[in-house]
Amino acid sequence: MSDQKPTPPDRRITLSLSNILLVVGAVLVLVLLSQLQGLIVLIMISVVLASSIVPLVDWAQGMKMPRWLAVIFVYLTLIAGLTGFGLLIGPSVVDQIGLLVRQLPLFAERIVDLVSNIASRLGEDTPALIDRLVDTQSLTNWVIRSSQQLLLRSYGITRGIVGGVFSLILALFVSGYMVADSKTLVNSVVQLFPAPWNDRLASLAEPVSRRMGSYIRGRLIVSGILGVTITTALGFLGLREFAVGLGAIAGVTNLIPFLGPILGAIPALVVALAKGGWLFVWVLLLYVILQNLETYVLDPLLVGSSVGVHPLYQLLSVLAGVQVLGIIGALIVPPWFAGVAALVENLYLEPKRSAERQLAIVPMPEVPARRPPNSDPTPERTP
Fold it and tell me: pTM, whole model, 2 decimals?
């Protein structure tokens, strides 16, 4: 017999009409999604807003209100409260932030002079080297220009302040419709999936919404507490002319996990360093204490395990949101990541753990012991 192995058949890649149409359809869908990126971001913002407001609407509906009337009541109450709060502190915040921006070149010059004085003790030519390397006017212009670009044009849908306000109003209307007719909306989406996935996804709509909403509400409460605390503490430390503005900056930036507290502390530290003395040390100590208070007390108490994922993955979601959508992405991507984590946990991890527990409970069948080949099967009889 010959030892020659049979040659395997030739594998040829065939392109059918259905495969070509599938590829073309996928490309067209991607192009369409790229053109509708503004609408997609608007829907993402609306879902986050709706998830955070659902408990308030449920509470109002429990007071014998129709669902649509409860939605209108909650939204009007929140808008009126935010408007009143903005009219109360808004002028002070705008004035103090404007004063801070106008005095930023002066603060930069003072900081450079301070660094030059310290460096002059180390070498005679060090201050001249610092002056050549650091252009305070160019540095200030770059900081202002970068801040404006990051805040106002971080994403295409915010075409200036007017576009951002219009998008926010539209997101409020869309989220209100989502809350008012949430059951019908969820059923219309899940029925596109085959059984039994449609029933599973319908049962997970409430847990996902609860996790996203609890995350947003927790961050808002923590940011409000820290904003008021920082405003009060900076006033006692001697920064009354900037206390409200710096507290507002810290409260808004604290909505961004991990990176927000650092961004909020930078303006206060710059002002304290420019004013000199021990003020910088006290302000730095204030922010360090508040950061630890937030990390070990406020976040576990108010935000809790609403995200349900490792902090490293939360940080990566923030960075991904900033990379793709700017400041808007840093705010809305983490709650969406929390919702996706809830889906993965309920659709994959929980069934996997349940199957592993059942497999561990079921006893393994006993294998009878084998007898030696020369052993006598008959038992020995005692005389």
Answer: 0.70
